[in-house]
Design a protein that fits this description.
Layout (H helix, E strand, L loop, with lengths): L2 E6 L12 H8 L6 E6 L6 H10 L6 E5 L4 H16 L4 E5 L1 H5 L1 H5 L6 E3 L4 H13 L10 E4 L5 E3 L34 E4 L2 E3 L8 H6 L3 E3 L2 H15 L3 E4 L8 H11 L5 E6 L1 H4 L4 H9 L2 E9 L3 H6 L8 H14 L2 E8 L5 H18 L4 E6 L8 H8 L8 H4 L2 H7 L11 H17 L10 H17 L6 H9 L11
Parallel strand pairs: 1-2, 1-3, 3-4, 4-5, 8-11, 11-12, 12-13, 13-14, 14-15
Antiparallel strand pairs: 5-6, 6-7, 9-10
Helix pairs in contact: 1-6, 2-3, 8-9, 9-11, 13-14, 14-18, 18-19
Bound molecules: cobalamin and iron/sulfur cluster.
The site of cobalamin has 37 residues, from helix 1, strand 3, helix 3, strand 4 and helix 4.
């Protein structure tokens, strides 16, 4: 049996690794035909040595498949994969995941990536392995693949349909040391993540998910998802589950049925959803979600300006008023809303930022427990007014992987870049200062280490600044935050 090595480059520097669901998903398709092994860089003291040894032991020309997110994971991947290819030039190196899906040409222009799988890769990867090991089919006949043609130029085939997760084989959790991924969060002492649906039916033009699925959404059934949760609970004593789905709450009946099914387990759970969708849920469904342990929902509020929401193609029936309505409603249900905002949008990032900062204050007034997550607008290669405006302002994506892993572009990938043509460095600082004052006045509810005493101290220390809207140079708060190991809200969810 041909051996395939699946590699997850280190993705969490904080030593709280997330189970590599991407590789468990593509691996599940190989169970009957290929011998495969998942190696997680998050768990390896020296990933290069481990991979080198595994590849050397392969015998036949090895195939190494790597999952790559933009940001620090890409930074880990580039030097490591280049070195592996140097040591084993006969190997085939395949990349998949969010970064290669969007920037497949930059990956293929490197001297070590041979094939890119674009989008959700279960079926395509299996076809590519068959092509590489048996010669049938040929790469050019497989949808969802990119490779270099005979002239060495990167080319891609047409987009592949997303696989239906309800019909895919279940992940084989015995392929990874699950226990090492179980961790404490504000929801429970033993938390694990899962992903129960693919895609999202919307087209927000700042969002990488659109390139991945082009407006499609396919879920596992409520029964299948409840089965996984029940397995987590029975086998590993899991008492809290994070759903990483881009849009867990897309289908009302699925959510209601899932909530009913997991009710007896007494676990807590978290997921990501749309404000306009969830506002339409019935009272019964909210009751079921709350009673089944839903503790928090991550929601894209995006902006306090209706103009910006329109420019983002936010779609549906989104408005700042709906965000306030949601904040109010979730307060009544005692479920924490985690609102995410995209700040500093072109063409007038200053005004945009001020409007959103004022709006966030309103949200907090309505529901002080709301978590607030702020990002800077970072374009994705997707047509839309924002990206067109960004390009007109002089924005261009890097062409090489080396550029992508430069400090400037790593910041960009983490949505913290201040070097975008339309962003002044002072703007980013203003957002960070605002965030610091806000998070001192309303300390995040998800920080399980923060005692009530410290919460009171932070609140008193920031009250004058917050009320006077004086956010600049919050040095005293920075000092306090240093003493209590400040946790940004964004690290609490996934
Ligand atoms: C869990 C998660 C994390 C985890 C780590 C996950 C891991 N791999 O170890 C943590 C919390 C550490 C994390 C961090 C970050 N993340 Co993250 N993360 C996610 C999240 C919520 C779920 C990923 C997941 O497990 N999905 C489940 C699996 C089954 O799906 P999948 O990963 O998409 O895999 C499928 C395909 O992509 C493809 N595929 C993937 N890999 C491979 C490999 C091969 C060989 C093949 C063939 C196919 C293939 O096939 C898979 C099966 O269909 C996604 C959003 C989402 N819903 O997907 C964001 C997401 C990937 N993250 C994102 C970002 C921005 C980040 C950060 C940069 C955030 C930040 N500000 O710092 C950091 C960077 C971390 C790093 N060190 O690089 C963005 C990427 C945006 C973009 N422009 O591409 C996403 C899309 C969130 C979003 N909506 O914006 N993340
Ligand atoms: S609703 Fe959320 S996941 Fe869907 S396209 Fe918009 S931002 Fe992306």
């Amino acid at each position: 049996m041909k051996k395939i090595i699946l590699y997850n480059p280190q993705s969490s520097s904080n030593k709280k690794p997330i189970m590599p669901l991407s590789l468990l998903a593509v691996g599940a398709m190989l169970e009957d035909t290929y011998d495969y092994e998942i190696i997680d860089g998050n768990l390896e003291a020296d990933a290069l040595t481990r991979l080198d040894a595994e590849i050397s032991a392969c015998g036949t020309p090895p195939i190494v498949a790597v999952t790559v997110m933009p940001g620090p994971q890409l930074q880990q991947s580039v030097p490591l994969c280049r070195e592996l290819k140097r040591r084993h030039p006969q190997m085939t190196m395949i990349w998949g995941g969010y970064f290669p899906t969007q920037h497949w040409d930059s990956c293929l222009r490197s001297d070590f990536v041979d094939v890119v799988i674009r989008g959700h890769g279960e079926v395509v990867f299996r076809q590519v392995l068959d092509a590489l090991t048996t010669g049938q089919p040929q790469l050019k006949d497989i949808a969802g693949v990119a490779y270099c043609d005979e002239n060495g130029e990167p080319v891609t085939t047409m987009e592949a349909p997303i696989p239906n997760p309800a019909k895919l084989p279940l992940m084989n959790f015995d392929r990874v040391p699950v226990e090492r991924y179980v961790r404490p969060t504000f929801m429970g002492s033993r938390t694990l993540g899962y992903h129960s649906s693919y895609g999202c039916p919307f087209f927000c033009n700042f969002c990488a998910v659109v390139n991945m699925v082009n407006g499609r959404w396919l879920p596992q059934t409520a029964e299948q998802v409840a089965h996984v949760v029940e397995t987590y609970n029975r086998r590993w004593g899991v008492n809290a589950v994070e759903f990483f789905d881009n849009n867990f709450f897309t289908h009302h009946n699925r959510v209601a049925e899932f909530s009913e099914r997991i009710m007896p387990l007494g676990i807590s759970w978290w997921g990501e959803g749309r404000i306009d969708t969830m506002l339409k849920f019935s009272t019964r469904t909210w009751q079921l979600m709350r009673d089944s342990g839903l503790r928090m929902v991550f929601l894209g509020a995006e902006s306090g300006s209706m103009e910006t929401l329109k420019r983002m193609d936010k779609g549906g029936k989104m408005s700042p008023e709906k965000t306030l309505e949601m904040a109010r409603m979730m307060k009544e249900w005692d479920i924490v809303p985690e609102f995410s905002f995209v700040m500093g949008n072109p063409p007038d990032p200053e005004t945009d930022m001020h409007e959103t900062m004022e709006f966030i204050r309103q949200v907090k007034q309505v529901n002080p427990a709301s978590e607030i997550i702020m990002y800077l607008y970072s374009p994705v290669p997707l047509s839309g007014e924002l990206y067109e405006q960004a390009k007109a302002d002089g924005f261009a994506f890097p062409e090489t992987l080396e550029e992508w892993i430069s400090p400037e572009w790593l910041n960009f990938s983490q949505r913290r870049s201040h070097t975008m043509p339309w962003i002044k460095q002072t703007l980013q600082q203003q957002i960070l200062d605002f965030e610091r004052v806000l998070n001192a006045y309303y300390p995040t509810t998800t920080d399980i280490k923060l005692t009530q005493n410290w919460r009171n101290i932070l609140r008193v220390a920031s009250a004058a600044r917050y009320h006077m809207r004086f956010y600049r140079f919050p040095i005293e708060l920075r000092a306090l935050h240093r003493m209590v190991a400040y946790q940004r809200p964004e690290t609490s969810g996934f």
